[in-house]
Amino acid sequence: MQGIEPKLHTSLTSRIEYYRLLIEAADDSETRPSDVTTQIAELGNLYEEYLTNKKNLEESIKKYRAYHNDLRKKLTMRLREIKRKTRQK
Prior knowledge:
Blueprint (H helix, E strand, L loop, with lengths): L5 H21 L7 H55 L1
């Protein structure tokens, strides 16, 4: 699974800010496309959602690994006990 590189997001965010400044400098209501403004806001929201999901996924992976390792250790111990018992018989 690949993630969104912060560099790419920051690069686009910088371009968006530059675009916004040009729009404000032009101060022309015809030059203000609302669809781009809406998309810019949506992009920011999607990136924040991505960061939240990424953090949750990382925590979930850590929990899984810890549980997996604990279970593996318990299983190994029980297998050794059973092998020992069968050899003793």
